[in-house]
Structure formats: C-alpha cells, structure tokens
Amino acid sequence: MQKIRQSAERAKEILLANDRGGYTVPTAGLYPYQWNWDSIFAALGFAVFDRARAWQEIETLFDAQWADGMVPHIVFRKNDPSYFPGPGIWQSNTDPMSSGHSQPPVAASVILTLAKTGGADDIARARRLFPKLVASHRWWHDYRDPDRTGLVGIIHPWESGRDNCPDWDLGMDRIVVPDDLGPYHRRDTDHVDADERPTVQQYDRYLTIVKFGRECGWDHRKIAAEGPFFMADPGVQFTLMRGDRDLLELGNLLGEDFDAGEIEDWIALSKEGAQQMWRPDAGAFVARELRSGDLSTALTNASMLAFYADAGTPEQLAELAGHGGEILDICEYGFPSWDPRDEAFESRRYWRGPVWSVMNYMIAIGLEEHGHAAMAARLRDDCLRLPDRSGFYEYFDPMTGEGLGGPDFTWTAAIYLTLGGGRAAGDV
To answer: What global pTM score does this model have?
Structure first.
C-alpha cells in the first residue's frame, strides 16, 4: 500500500510538472508540444483531482481544430528546436500551427466518461464541445473513407499513434524516398536510445509522406487518393467505432438537437467495413493496405480493441480472446503491441512489441463488457504494476517490465490515476 501511495503521488506530480499552462506535453524534451490523444488521456488523469483542469486540457486541443473538422495530432504552441519535425516542416498555415493529420479519435469516449461521472459544470462543458466532436467524427468519415466503404484509412503511420508497428511495413515498403528529401537531424534519438525508436529507413519514409502533404497544401482528398501511404488501421477504426457509439450516447445524454441518424449510419457502415480487416489465419483484425488490399500478418494490441468497438461476430471475438489469452501467458506484462509469437516481435522497440498503458485501458474496457473479466483485470493490474516496478515510462518491455522511451510520461501517469492507483490510496 505504501508503494501504491508513493506512485500515486508521483503520478500527480508528473501531470503537474508536464503542464504548460492549459495543456500538457507528453514528457519534457522528447515531446515538447501538445499531442492529440495524449491530451485526451491526460484529461482522465486530471479528472481524478482537478476536473476543471481536465476540461481545460480537452478545450485547448479543440481550439486547434481545423475548419474542416480535423483535430491535428500535434499543436505547435511555440517553436521548440528540440523537436523534429517542427512547424517549419509541416507548414500547415493554421493558427495555431499544427501537424497536417490527426490521431485516434478518443475524445468522445473520454468526454462521455467525464459527463456521466460529473456534475452540472461537466455537462455544460461537454455541451459546448459537442458540435466540435460531431465535426471531428464527420471529418474522419468524409475524408478518410471517401468511397463510403465503412473502412477508414490513415495517411501516415503517425496518424495511427502506433508509429512503427509492423502493421505499416506493407505500406511503408511501397514508398519511394525522393532524392530531394534533404538532410535532417532527428531529435528523438538525442533523448532516447536508438534501439527503442524507429529506424532511419522508417524515418525517411515518414518524412516523404509529410513532404507530399506539405506540397499539396494538406489537401486531404488528394492525399487519400494519391498520397504515398493509405492504410486501414484497426486502432483508428475501432476507436472511431467506439467513439461514434459514445458520441450518440453523449448527444442523447446532453439533450442536444443533432442528426442521430447520421451517427447511426456511421456505426452500421463501420461495423460492416471492419470485416475487411479480418484475417482468418491470424484469428484477428489486422491492418489493410487500401490500394493493394493486402493484409498485415499478426495480432496487435490494436486488434484487441475489437472488443472496445463491439466489432466482429461472436465467433471472431471468441477466437480473438483465445489468442489474447495465449499471448498473455507468454508475457510477464501485457498487452504487447505485437504478437510475441511472430518473428517481427521486438520487445523494446516502440510499437513493435512494448506495452502501452493507454491501449491496456481501452482493451480492458472492451474485454470487461464482453465477459472477459479476468483478462481485463490482468491488464488493469499491469498498468499499476509496471509504473510501481519501473517508473512512469512511455512504454515497457512485456517480458521484463523495464521502462522504455520517455520518462515521467503524462499518459502513463494519467492511466495509473484513472485505474485507481491514486484514489485507492486516498492521496490525490
């Protein structure tokens, strides 16, 4: 209990230390700006001890929403040379400056949680954000599924939030790095061991995609149709599916005058479209290269979000749960970001193996809702055990529990508090 109390207090300190005045950075140095889904999960942590500050975190993010409805993945509130690629590379021509694509749409789900667990002020603030949430979801369905297939695409691995997952190797291998990409100096490996980060070859391709977007003025219809990368991501697909359901519930809770039929159509089409990601020999939903139709090869933590989204048939979910249990039997800590039974598994390299608390948080919700209480409890427990053992790192080795990536990480601390590490100790 003493260890839990100390960790809970440390988690609160991290959120406060990473506060930059209305928004948090994920961690000092490595990520000096406001990140989209990082901020949304940070709000969950702040809500444990300061609900007004939780709402402020979300509101500052949506202040950067584009006119077309997109909520960008990075908001550059100042120019910090310690990060690359910064606003001069993206050239979004927005105010504030931002990156040119989005990140997994988790805001509606978190805002619903805050609205259902709070009071009158929470309802009022959720009501002010509701039209912006609808616009954000409409952007995903309009710009990332222009042909109305029910399967949304991403234009960059960074848009998935799972930057270097082997899922993207299919699409990344198709990218031709131009001769005029130019020299550049990565900043991430100034802060973190290169063995824990994407490779140089991957980074060249990341910047090739950014170059295409910049040169077409971030025309998202053109990027989806002609850009160097366009893949369906189970992570984005499933968080959007869950988000659409939660958006509908939120609108009804708030008594808003909105087009419920539009959202219901999104939900139905997405449930049908998700079947295009099912790979029978993997027993899982996997990424799909949208131009070739090729499927990725193995189960990931994003595959496990099928429960969170209520995607798939009962038979598919039963098979997926079986594979998930087998993987947890292999790993000391779950849930790994890539199947450890696959040759591409790397326990220390970013999204090619390590455990991420925010993914565990969402996976556990879905598992609980589908009757897999023991597996859900295991993942929640691991979200507490890992920081207790190694500190509040960005991600963790699933075999050893070693903390990896950035230290004193906002969303790891936020999930710790959200799952009870703080409230159980009575310290925050």
So the answer is: 0.95
